[in-house]
Design a protein that fits this description.
Number of helices: 13
CATH architecture of the largest domain: 3-Layer(aba) Sandwich
Helix content: 40-55%
CATH class of the largest domain: Alpha Beta
Largest sheet: 5 strands, parallel
Order of helices and strands: HEHEHHEHEHEHEHEHEHHEHH
Number of strands: 9
């Protein structure tokens, strides 16, 4: 594994290895131990989209491994692929740093960085894929359920990058995903077909959130309005009426159900404050696990 761009390009064994390493390193650091395999190593962190969790978790992860991170804003480089070609940027960064993390809008930008870079490239989020988030989600499920094979996730909301990454993760790790979205906001058919080509009937699309949560081990939701969609706020909030994760919906699932949200949560819209603060919610364990998964990913990609 040279890069980490999408769960769809990883094997089951690679994903399981990363998850085991995540749990092992979490236990090590929680017990006061350290692994400084990245001493003297540097991570370039390219941001087109601002983020609380992505920046802090990656920067903390590389520091805890003994290395350092360089935060690079769009204005620092004139935008990714704007002031100079991405292929030039990738080769220059490869002479300076040991890995590149990028959080962008277009997935093609991260893919092109990886094509030309001679150091590992990590997709920290694109409009198409959010693999680090989905792996932290799966890590959280393992902590609460142990064996995750056969577990059912009900994803309520926009068929976006998070839903897509979860679909690929479920296909590779023997879980089931039901995506409940309003008409016009479904997960694209190509991604569903790709996931189901790995394991048949892994992903099902529906328009009914109530039926989606029946028998679910996990209820997952995300913001209805992602970065870059701010002009659509009123329309989206109207279109997603009836898709809120509230206690009425949660009570239709088994009593052991856990609720996940990749954050930031817009309480009162896609999820209620009551659910966020309920015993079903594990959203802050999930947020913490971004750090633990990404630390394992950096160790694997940089240190081998």
């Amino acid at each position: 594994m040279k890069d980490f761009l999408s769960i769809s390009t990883c094997t089951k064994d690679q994903l399981l290895e990363l998850l085991k390493l995540s749990h092992d390193l979490k236990a090590l650091y929680k017990s006061g131990g350290r692994d400084i395999c990245c001493a003297g190593k540097t991570l370039a962190m390219l941001f087109e989209k601002p983020s609380l969790r992505t920046r802090v978790s990656f920067e903390t992860a590389i520091i805890q491994l003994g290395g350092s991170g360089i935060y690079i804003k769009p204005e620092d480089i004139g935008g990714i692929g704007k002031r100079e070609p991405i292929k030039d940027m990738a080769r220059v960064f490869s002479r300076y740093v040991n890995a590149i993390m990028a959080r962008t809008f277009e997935h093609d930008k991260v893919a092109e960085l990886a094509k030309w870079a001679t150091v590992p490239v990590i997709n920290a989020l694109t409009d198409w894929s959010h693999p680090c988030q989905a792996m932290a989600d799966i890590m959280t499920m393992q902590e609460y359920f142990g064996d995750i094979a056969g577990r059912k996730i009900a994803y309520i909301g926009d068929g976006n990058n998070v839903a897509r990454s979860l679909a690929f993760g479920c296909a590779k790790l023997d879980m089931k995903l039901v995506v409940a979205s309003p008409v016009g906001y479904e997960l694209d058919r190509e991604s569903i077909a790709k996931a189901n080509s790995h394991a048949s009937d892994t992903v099902i699309q529906t328009h009914d959130p109530r039926s989606a949560v029946e028998g679910a081990d996990v209820i997952y939701t995300d913001t209805w309005v992602s970065m870059g969609q701010e002009s659509e706020v009123a329309k989206r909030r109207a279109d997603f009426t009836g898709y809120q994760v509230n206690m009425e919906l949660v009570k239709l699932a088994p009593s052991h159900v856990k609720v996940l949200h990749c954050l930031p949560a817009y309480r009162g819209f896609e999820i209620t404050d009551e659910v966020c603060e309920s015993d079903h919610s594990v959203i802050f364990d999930e947020a913490e696990n971004r750090l633990h998964f990404q630390r394992a990913l950096l160790k694997k990609l940089i240190c081998g």
